[in-house]
Each structure stands twice: as structure tokens, then as C-alpha cells.
Amino acid sequence: MSTAAVAERNAAIVERFYESERRRDLETWASLWHPAGRQTFPFSKESEVRGINDLRRVTARKFEVRPPYEIHTRVEAFADPHRVLARLRLVMTVPAGAEVNIWCVFHFDDDGRVLEVEEMLDTASAPPVPQ
């Protein structure tokens, strides 16, 4: 597969990743991960989640406790086809109209599975996730 094709595939996977979040489809979301994948949240108590079982647990909890919100994505491939930048604008229903901007760097393995998502945001703009 050419470098451009790998980059295009991985960018499409990021779009699928957020579409599964919009639908709160945990099975599809989990299927996109490498079993040893990890997600880092430098702004949170749980600053790293490692392994598919813990990723599923944390995301299931997020789907359970957060009211629905809109996810607007802008996805850009890096020159390195194994990395993709996702710029998100989340529009919350509670509090109504609140917005949060998040930037995520996705790292992929050769098969197009998510190895890592590094999530960054302006912590002053984000509502807390209930524990």
C-alpha cells in the first residue's frame, strides 16, 4: 500500500472512530483499536488508559454519564502516514451550547489499528467528566 493510501485509510478510520462515538456504538469504537492501545488525557485524573478492556470500560462510562453532544471533526493526515490529527469541536447539550475544542493525535499500526490517541484540550473550557 502506498504512503498516500495508508494516510487516506488512517484518516478514514479516524472519521469512523468519531462516527461510532456520535452513535455511542461501543462495539465499533472498540474494533478500531489495537488490543494494547492506549489513550492519554494529560488533563484528567485518569491520565492514561491502556489496553482494550480498560479503554472499553472508560468509554462505556463516558457514554453512560455524559449527555449527548455534537462532535464536529476536521481530520488531517501528517506527512507520517501512521499519524493523523483530529481537531474536534464538541457542542454540549448540558450546559446548553457550551463548546469544547479538543485536538487528538492518532497513532496507527501497519494494519490500521489505533495504537494511541493523545488528547489535548484547553482545560478551562471543558466540563468535568463525572466519576
Principal-axis shape equals globular
Instruction: Give the beta-strand count.
Output: 6
N-to-C span: 43 Å
Can you count the helices? 3
**What class, by secondary structure content?**
alpha+beta
State the low-pLDDT regions, or none. none
- In spatial order, strands of the major sheet run 2-1-6-5-4-3
**What proportion of the residues is helical, as a percent range?**
25-40%
Q: Give a quick account of the main beta sheet: strands, pairing sense, barrel closure.
A: 6 strands, mixed
What would you note in describing this structure?
The chain has helices at residues 3-23, 26-31, 52-65; strands at 33-40, 48-50, 69-77, 83-92, 99-108, 114-121. By secondary structure, it is α+β, with helices and mostly antiparallel strands. The model has no long low-confidence stretch (mean pLDDT 90).
Please describe the structure with a list of short key phrases separated by commas or semicolons.
alpha+beta; 6-stranded mixed beta sheet; 37% strand
